[in-house]
């Protein structure tokens, strides 16, 4: 599964702590992240993370492109609900794309834990069906 990890500045410590707690689950999957978040996760774990640009510099849009092509299976985006973000339109576009494509997206640690536990149990097998259908039908 392809999993994106994104965290606003004041949420990065929480993201790192979360990924450390579930490192055994995440090591079985391909991880993608925006710049600093990915760097901090790699410094704190043994996980390999493909890093895109920082969110304000286009990282959210780069991950959004994967979502639009149905190449992302899960997003954990720890947003800071108390701080205005200069790239709010990019964030809204990413969340909208998740809704359009039916990609599960957690925006807080409580929902992230529920989705991660489901991932650990194998409850995301339906994503494999989606991938298989799209490849067999020639959909992109």
Automatic annotation (TrEMBL):
It catalyses: dihydroxyacetone phosphate = methylglyoxal + phosphate. The active site is at 60 (proton donor/acceptor). It holds the Pfam family MGS. Its EC number is 4.2.3.3. InterPro entries: Methylgl_synth, Methylglyoxal_synth_AS, MGS-like_dom, MGS-like_dom_sf. Coiled coil: none annotated. GO terms for molecular function: methylglyoxal synthase activity. Residues 1-140 form the MGS-like domain. Keywords: Lyase. Substrate binds at residues 8, 12, 34-37, 54-55, 87. Belongs to the methylglyoxal synthase family. Catalyzes the formation of methylglyoxal from dihydroxyacetone phosphate. PANTHER family: METHYLGLYOXAL SYNTHASE. This is Methylglyoxal synthase. It comes from Paenibacillus eucommiae.
